[in-house]
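Hi team, as promised in this morning's meeting, here are the two structures we talked about. I've kept the exact order from the run log so nobody has to guess. The first one is mostly here for context; it's the second one we should focus on when we meet again. Sequence first, then the predicted structure tokens.
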Amino acid sequence: MADIAQSAPARVYRPPPSEAPGAIGWMRRNLFNSVANSIITVVLVVLIGMALWNFLDWALFKSVVSAKNGPECARISPDGACWAFVVDKYRLIFFGTYPFAEHWRPLFACLSCVAMLILSCDRRFWNWRLAVIWIVGTAVTLTLMFGGILGLSYVETSKWGGLPVTLILASYGLALAFPLGILAALGRRSKLPLIKGLCVGYIELIRGVPLISLLIMASVMLPLFLPSGMTIDKFLRALVAVTLFAGAYIAEIIRGGLQSIPKGQYEAADAMGLNYAQKTFFIILPQALQVVIPPLVNTFIGFFKDTSLVLIIGIFDLLNAGEQAIVDRNWSGFANEIHVFLAIIYFIMCYSMSRYSKYLEREMNKSVRR
């Protein structure tokens, strides 16, 4: 026993780490690790603090929430924000020129669309129930917006505007563009010359022109090619243009994901005796989509903001409806308030998509060994 005790290795006591843990340690390592970085950090903190204080002073401390018109608002607080303008025009901003007495319909249509999108983000519904959610949500949204049944008066799309237009164009445009992009990406990698040529032509043609040109083409040129007396709804034409444009960009993103899959995955699928459809939709495509989640969400965010370009064909989305509110002479000179208010709404929606993409990427990569 004495020999065993003498042969046991001596314990080595190490000093505690010199760097402080937590936020203080992170700041020392990244913000104050040298004299130059310390000076830059202090200067930037002072400048950001001054800018933030000036903004809060204008937006909160000196702001006006209740006023009858612009001159009264300016008289109460000449240096503060006039949120009374937004309070007075919020219906025009959110619902555009939709009939005033029927504003409850686009409100519940927006809630239905948002609920449908939130449920679609839950991975527990990624089965047959997702199709049911979209069918029911689409039926409720379109019934409320169009009317004409169940005692609801019919409202044509020329009177739509505001938030419902933005949500419908973004949601359904990207929902339709996603399978279109998948098919185009697979077609571009096809070994059949005709299919590959058609997909390459579609992708390169659409990606080679701006979205505005497609919207003008859909609004002005398309009716010229239709038979006499036949018309297509302007909102539907805008939705088709957005879908085609987004589909081409999504196709290139997915094609990059397909190219990143190792050749061994294809060979393993072939060795298992899977046909092309089984190999693509059960082995290759899920891995490719998992790789391209960040660029896909970035594309979704970009096209969500690009819906404001439909103004070129006379459709007023959320941003353009807000611009119309500025025209009122009783509230002239308060454009900053509208733009800040709309920027907050766009930021909330885009930031939510960004955070969800990070969550989805983290959840889908749990099984990947780092």
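And here is the second protein, the one for discussion:
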Amino acid sequence: MSEPQLNFRHLTGIKDLRVDDVRLILDVARQFKEVLQRPIKKVPSLRDITIANLFFENSTRTRMSFELAEKRLSADVINFSASGSSVSKGETLLDTVQNILAMKVDMIVVRHPQVGAAQFLASKVPASVINAGDGTHEHPTQALLDAYSIEEAMGKIKGVKVLLVGDILHSRVALSNLLCLRKMGALLRVCGPPTIIPKYISSLGVETMYDLDEALRWADVVNVLRIQSERMELQYFPSIREYSQFFGIDRRRLDAIGKELVLMHPGPINRGVELHSDAADSKYSIILDQVENGVAVRMAVLYLLANSRTNAVN
């Protein structure tokens, strides 16, 4: 495999990426997905690199995906969880990271409840920083794997009609997806109760719809987002039951549209709320493909950032 590289050392968000950057990541991810189909799935690309996974929020899918990607690239991996650590004793984020850097860590993958945490670290430490989710702000690798999955399913991204349904206001996946897919030429709309659609949506050139069935008839791809109850300080709609009635997606609703749709979800799924099992497990769904693609895309990001870091040092 050749050694392409990005023109930056950190991935803290989608906003500052160029179309060429996204294209490079997706193309390299395609090569790594081929590697993952082999009997021996490991390559020595990051053999001399040490990566710390710092998760200050609970995570299963993202953390496992990053760890597997790192191990497939032969990196040395350190896993850190805020639970039971010195953070619970009052240690600051920067102190925690500087202690880990003293162990000669080259790259940091960080998830943190505070908006801007990854950007803050990137400005303070010499290691490359990858944002695995900061508050309600961004989740860039999720957006990249979603873009990859759409291209794989549809054969392209440009011109594809992508609908995001659900809690747009509190979702970092939503913002990163909208920024990434808009760069790549997708046509975008969102759908959900007006109380959980942010006011900035129109400034992104994204149309809002409130009738789910009409929105589904428009779409080629539907990315369903869960209700972020843990981030809600207010009650944004009368009840979960009512939300599911008007904005939940089940097989009956999909079949009634009368055309093939691609159904996505970043996980975890609240089955019976935003997505019913008969839809999540149906022929429309590429949710498990997203999980598989997540490893390949994160391998690509780690590999490319490591190349950029090495070349910057040289």
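Starting points for discussion:
The chain is about 40% helix and 15% strand.
The mean pLDDT is 91.
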